Amino acid sequence: MKLPEVFASPANVRSVLQGTPIFNAGDDSGEMFVVQSGEVDIVIKGVVVETVGPEGFFGEISLIEDSERSADAIARTDCKLLPVNRHHFLYMVDEMPQFALHVMKGMADRLRKADKRAEV
């Protein structure tokens, strides 16, 4: 699923250099990110639990819960990220039900992967 072009305008794209933290566990929320290019590692307590690539997203849980970040997000490679703030997120959930389903599917996939990691 592609985000509406209005959110993907070049003015909104954030370039992040390899190794740069995008956010840290405990930070306030405020936006989620869609990866346009590159890869981002999601790190919990020093362990990479997921690598998010192009068209993937991260940071949505803190927007949904209005809570602090639960993980670190660090650019694994040079990245171009599209930030989606709370206002845009709520607009897309309201106006594009497929977007909400896409986010829920991504969260379900992450939960399934976490369950498999816990079995080991």
Concise synopsis of the structure shown:
The protein has helices at residues 60-65, 86-95, 97-119; strands at residues 14-16, 21-23, 31-37, 40-44, 47-52, 57-58, 72-75, 79-85. Strand 4 and strand 5 (47-52) form a beta hairpin.
Assembly annotation: single chain
Number of helices: 3
In CATH, the topology is named Jelly Rolls
Widest beta sheet: strand line-up: 1-8-3-6
CATH architecture: Sandwich
In CATH, the homologous superfamily goes by the name Jelly Rolls
Average pLDDT rating: 87
CATH first level = Mainly Beta
Distance between the termini: 32 Å
Shape by Cα distribution:
globular
H-E order? EEEEEEHEEHH
Helix content: 25-40%
Tally of domains: 1
- How many extended strands? 8
Strand content: 25-35%
- Rounded to an integer in angstroms, the radius of gyration calculated over CA atoms is 14 Å
Low-confidence stretches: none
Which class best fits the helix and strand makeup? Answer: alpha+beta
| Main sheet attributes: strand count, strand direction, barrel closure | 4 strands, antiparallel
